[in-house]
Amino acid sequence: MGGHPIIRTQDLTKRYGGHEAVRSLNLEVYEGEIFGFLGPNGAGKTTTLLMLLGLTVPTTGTVEVCGFDPVREARDVKQVVGYLPENVGFYGDLDAVQSLAYIAALNGKPHADATRTIPGLLEQVGLADAARKKVGFFSRGMRQRLGIAEVLLKEPKVLLLDEPTLGLDPDGAARLIGLIESLNRDRNMTVLLSSHNLQQVQRISHRVGIMIEGGMVAEGPIDTLAEQTFGLGGSRYSLEEIYLEYFQEG
Ligand SMILES: Nc1ncnc2c1ncn2[C@@H]1O[C@H](COP(=O)(O)OP(=O)(O)O)[C@@H](O)[C@H]1O
Ligand SMILES: [Mg+2]
């Protein structure tokens, strides 16, 4: 890890009509880190992720992801960035293997390559036993894990995950978080993780950012934020306590 930002935004702003969904955001995510992206509903997290992907055009400001500008080089960005949206869509009639083969074909991957890689991917996300089960019968947690397998088909350098554990039971959430952690540790994937699951974010994130009403109100390693918020010796405070403190101020 260290000094090299793989994601960088400068004064990034998105306005919808008169409403500023994202306001002058200066975000840096370093290569090899897990960055926890926190904030209440409506804070601007999804809008930020969409701008990093080139799926939403910024009103002003600049974005750089893996050295590319998502506005002008959206295709390059999509090659190196994997994105798990809040709701992953699959065809319920296809089984897990067929779903991944379909996505691989859509992305122009040779059929033989896909056939070789899919079983390993399903194994990796803990779905080997469900390989031939129709996705329509999957639990939400299983669908999220299949979504990660889909993202991994292209071996991305960066993973953008939008509230991946939302609506999962504790066991499903813990398994998904464990998977994200292992992708970071074993494959050095950089992860930008938007989540409300503060305990899990605290467990796996190297740094976090808290966004409120479009602006980043705090950013850094959790112990540093704790000391900034609660003073010297503040590192015994949890991320949840730090997070709530910003709402009392606001
Ligand atoms: N396409 C859109 N058109 C108009 N307003 C939008 C659009 N997308 C998001 N917003 C508004 O921008 C703000 C930030 O939304 P969003 O990025 O989805 O927040 P979060 O993901 O943190 O919950 C909200 O007030 C939301 O209503
Ligand atoms: Mg959102």
What does this structure look like?
- The protein has about 250 residues and is an alpha/beta fold.
- It has a domain at about 15-85 and about 160-250: P-loop containing nucleotide triphosphate hydrolases (Rossmann fold), CATH 3.40.50.300.
- It contains 9 helices and 10 strands.
- The protein has helices at about 45-55, 75-80, 95-105, 110-125, 140-150, 170-185, 200-205, 220-230, 240-250, and strands at about 5-15, 20-25, 30, 35-40, 60-65, 80-85, 160, 190-195, 205-210, 215-220.
- Helix 4 (about 110-125) crosses helix 5.
- It is globular, with a radius of gyration of 18 Å.
- Bound molecules: adenosine-5'-diphosphate (ADP) and magnesium ion.
- Magnesium ion (MG) binds near residues 45, 46 and 162.
Helix-strand layout with pairing:
Layout: E1 5-16, E2 19-25, E3 28-30, E4 34-38, H1 45-53, E5 60-65, H2 74-80, E6 81-84, H3 96-106, H4 111-124, H5 140-152, E7 158-162, H6 170-187, E8 190-194, H7 198-204, E9 207-212, E10 215-220, H8 222-230, H9 239-249
Parallel strand pairs: 4-8, 4-9, 6-7, 7-8
Antiparallel strand pairs: 1-2, 1-3, 1-5, 9-10
Helix pairs in contact: 3-4, 4-5
Bound molecules: adenosine-5'-diphosphate and magnesium ion (MG).
Adenosine-5'-diphosphate is lined by residues 16, 21, 39, 41-47.
